[in-house]
């Protein structure tokens, strides 16, 4: 946690160069393609489009969105890495947190340590452990008591068979000494529907839960974030309850390996300013997400740390027989 805070502080302090100071080079002289690993029209896609539009205006050239959803982010990351022969700053991509884990699970055409030029971390999903509003447990302590009273009876949904939410919920069970069933779902929308329908007892949900919470249909028992969040300051985190776990799932902008350092800095400065545009801030508010900018150096350091951490996670999954 202290290391993550240091990276964020370093990124914020280092990003002091303004766009005018970087404007001596003609770049960009044409539109920039931004590969996005999410479907068009989804909540994350909406935020990225808002940031891309604002960044394009700052740079003087539009950013064209190329949606390549699927394969847990691998398709988009592979497409970005394969464009390295044209690492001229005109092909960029959004990297989800899954790119740090996938190379440890299967053969990929990219290596997060070598295949990308890290430009700017943008935001991080704010997950909370959600239950139906009429659930008998009102707090994390109540949920723990119920799980211990009925070991192996409660069902907790999570997106992805081996996605970050699923892995973290397994880790939480181990840390807290609980036995519950983790049920995988394809996506947040399907997961939220299952929770609302009473098919599962709880689920880690990010921004998709907010409208249901405001409508009085769901509530959070605790936040699965490192610290309490602005929207729900009264909600404690699991870390406060002695369970040192949270869902760390940020996304950021990168280019192919070998990009010119001046172009990387110019793009990073544009994305930093674009994150604070009205449309970006509105999208983040709706998604219940923080603005989480990191500059190129801090973002790359974070990526390397994440790659090492996911290697250890995958090793544990193999020890438990969840991976071949």
Low-pLDDT ranges: 5-18
Give the strand order of the largest sheet, numbering strands 1, 2, ... along the chain.
Answer: 2-1-3-10-4-11
Proportion of beta-strand residues: 15-25%
Q: What radius of gyration results from the CA coordinates?
A: 20 Å
The biggest beta sheet is recorded as: 6 strands, mixed
**Tally of strands:** 11
Put simply, the count of helices is 11
Kindly report how far apart the N and C termini lie: 31 Å
The run of helices and strands is HEHEHEHEEHEHEHEHEEHHEH
Strand pairing plus helix content: what structural class?
alpha/beta
Round the mean pLDDT to the nearest integer and report it: 90
Helix share, percent: 25-40%
Indicate the overall shape: globular
Structure description:
The chain is α/β, with parallel strands linked by helices and 324 residues long. Helix content is 40%, strand content 19%. The chain contains 11 helices and 11 strands. The strands form 3 sheets. The protein has a 6-stranded mixed β-sheet with strand order 2-1-3-10-4-11, with helices on both faces. Strands 8-5-9 form a 3-stranded antiparallel β-sheet. The chain is globular. The relative contact order is 0.20. Mean pLDDT is 90; it is low at 5-18.
């Amino acid at each position: 946690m202290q290391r993550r805070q240091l990276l964020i502080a370093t990124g914020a302090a280092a990003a002091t160069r303004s766009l005018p100071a970087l404007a001596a080079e003609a770049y960009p002289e044409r539109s920039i393609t931004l590969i996005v690993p999410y479907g068009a029209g989804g909540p994350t896609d909406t935020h990225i489009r808002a940031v891309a539009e604002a960044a394009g205006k700052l740079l003087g050239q539009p950013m064209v969105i190329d949606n390549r959803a699927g394969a847990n982010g691998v398709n988009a990351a592979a497409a970005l890495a394969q464009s390295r022969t044209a690492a001229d700053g005109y092909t960029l991509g959004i990297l989800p947190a899954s790119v740090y884990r996938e190379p440890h699970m299967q053969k990929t055409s990219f290596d997060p340590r070598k295949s990308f030029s890290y430009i700017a971390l943008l935001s991080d999903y704010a997950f909370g452990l959600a239950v139906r509003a009429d659930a008998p447990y009102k707090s994390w302590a109540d949920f723990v008591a119920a799980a211990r009273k009925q070991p192996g009876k409660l069902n907790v949904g999570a997106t992805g068979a081996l996605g970050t939410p699923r892995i973290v919920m397994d880790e939480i069970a181990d840390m807290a000494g609980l036995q519950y069933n983790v049920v995988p779902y394809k996506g947040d929308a399907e997961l939220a529907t299952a929770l609302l329908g009473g098919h599962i007892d709880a689920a880690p949900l990010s921004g998709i839960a907010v409208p249901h919470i405001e409508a009085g249909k769901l509530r959070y028992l605790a936040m699965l974030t490192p610290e309490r969040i602005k929207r729900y300051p009264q909600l404690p985190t699991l870390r406060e309850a002695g369970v040192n776990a949270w869902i760390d799932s940020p996304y950021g902008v990168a280019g192919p390996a070998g990009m010119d350092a001046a172009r990387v800095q110019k793009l990073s400065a544009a994305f930093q300013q674009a994150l604070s545009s009205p449309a970006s801030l509105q999208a983040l508010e709706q998604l219940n997400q923080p603005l989480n900018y990191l500059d190129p150096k801090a973002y790359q350091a974070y990526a390397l740390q994440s790659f090492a951490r996911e290697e250890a996670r995958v090793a544990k999954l193999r020890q438990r027989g969840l991976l071949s």
